Amino acid sequence: MAGTLLDIAMMHSDALIARAREGDKSAQGKLVQLWYKRIYNFGYKYFFDHDLAMEVAQRTFISMHNNIANLQDLSRFRPWMYTIAVNYCREELRKRKNRRAVSIDTLAPGEREDSYKWEKSNARHENPERQLRHSELSDLLQACLLELSEEQREVVIMKEYEGLKFREIAEALSISENTVKSRMYYGLEGLKKILERKNISKETIGYEI
Amino acid sequence: MKYRPDESTLISFMYGELDDAEHAKVEAYLSENPEELNKFRQMDAVRSILSNITDKEVIAPPLMQDDRSPVVPIWRTSYFRASISIAASFILILVAGKLLGPDISYANNELRISFGGKPAVQENISPAQGQLTSLQVREMIDASEKRVDEQLLSTQARLDKTLRQAIASSSPATDSLAREMARASEPQLKAFVTSLKEENLQMMRQYIELSTADQRVYMENLLVDFSKWQQEQRNQDLQLLFTRVNSIENNTNQLKEETEQILASIISSSEVREKQGN
């Protein structure tokens, strides 16, 4: 989804990045404002977990703040940010695997009316029933995404939701462009099977919504 | 050989990242192969379903804090360096001492520090050659005082004599001058006083003229300096104003640019939401 919130502003933030690279604290703050939602949502889709997404976003921006002076090419900022974010995601995933603990949110994801997530949700104010259905569908699809392998999930999120070009994904993950495309292909194929298994199709979604 | 696009090409086609020629080839291939087209459409449908995952709203932290504290290795700390330099100096002294053979002794209210072993002391120096007795010192001091007193007396006598001679030679000349002054007539005195007055008057005039000219030059210089200073101040003020105006203009441009970016993003976001709503 290349046209998500603040995406266009982010596309034209070269001057801001240049100032941030020279140590301008205000520019760095503005970059955080511009990019926070993207990195948080990247982390959220990666883990389907608010706390982990917050953790990854915070660590990513601290790292950005500490290392932006070393960024040579301004045009590389976008893949560079995702490189940092994906590295922290992988690190968190490794920690979670070692811990073998399961979050209560993972056991009962979603924003049902009796859940605290529903209480915190901003979307509940407008057309509550429709929003709830949409939110449930979003969570259902999010859970499908979580069934993909780590490698395929990274590529699918970067391409489908962050709107990176294949070249940028290859740069961010330090792999070849063909490998990225191959992972994307098999990721979509895998998702197709998962959706079929859960009986989710365009038609059922249309009926639900 | 029949053209068959690989997975990478199909994916690039799906996301519109193929060049025109390749795009046309894949399009032709799909139109000729309904099964492949169907498979392609199913994949595209997956993408369409995935677009229902919405972004979560999140508020970015308002401030970025630089919580990095510079980690300085212990060997770079000033305390460590000072301690090491003291220790190194001490070791150097010890080594030097070891090599040179130090000798430290305290005797007869004196502290002796020496290197390179004890010097061979000549024990056979007779007291008459090396030292003076207190009686001899007293005699030498007395003799010296006597010589100084004699010299003082002779110098004083010479000074008295010279003074008397000088007074005797100068007193007749002074007496004659006084007598001549007393003999001077009234007209001569008047002429002398008049000439004195004229000289004084002329001197005063010259002084005032010179002083006025100097004052004029000084005032002119002062005015020129003041005008220069004023001009410089004006230039500086203008420069400051110019810089401020430039800064305001830059800030305004930057603000405008950022506002445009944010407005564009908000418009884009609302369009996406509308689409999702539809």
What order do the SSEs of chain B take from the amino end to the carboxyl end, as H and E? HHHHEEHHH
Strand content of chain A: under 5%
Number of helices of chain B: 7
Average pLDDT level of chain A: 82
Write structural notes for this entry.
The complex is a heterodimer of chains A (209) and B (278). Chain A is built from twelve helices and no strands. Chain A is mainly α and 209 residues long. Chain A has a domain at 1-107: Orthogonal Bundle (Rna Polymerase Sigma Factor, Chain: A). With 278 residues, chain B is mostly helical. Chain B has a domain at 133-183. Helix content of chain B is 74%, strand content 4%. In chain B, a hairpin with a 2-residue loop joins strand 1 and strand 2. Chain B starts with 6 loop residues before the first helix and ends with a helix. The mean pLDDT of chain B is 83.
Outline the fold blueprint:
The complex is a heterodimer of chains A (209) and B (278).
Chain A: H1 7-11, H2 14-21, H3 25-47, H4 50-67, H5 77-99, H6 104-107, H7 116-120, H8 128-146, H9 150-161, H10 166-173, H11 177-197, H12 202-208
Chain B: H1 7-14, H2 20-32, H3 34-50, H4 78-100, E1 102-107, E2 110-115, H5 127-130, H6 134-183, H7 186-277
Antiparallel strand pairs in B: 1-2
A few lines on this structure:
The complex is a heterodimer of chains A (209) and B (278). Chain A is built from twelve helices and no strands.
Give descriptors for this structure.
heterodimer; A: 209 residues; mainly alpha; Rna Polymerase Sigma Factor, Chain: A; 12 helices; 73% helix; globular; B: 278 residues; two-stranded antiparallel sheet; 4% strand
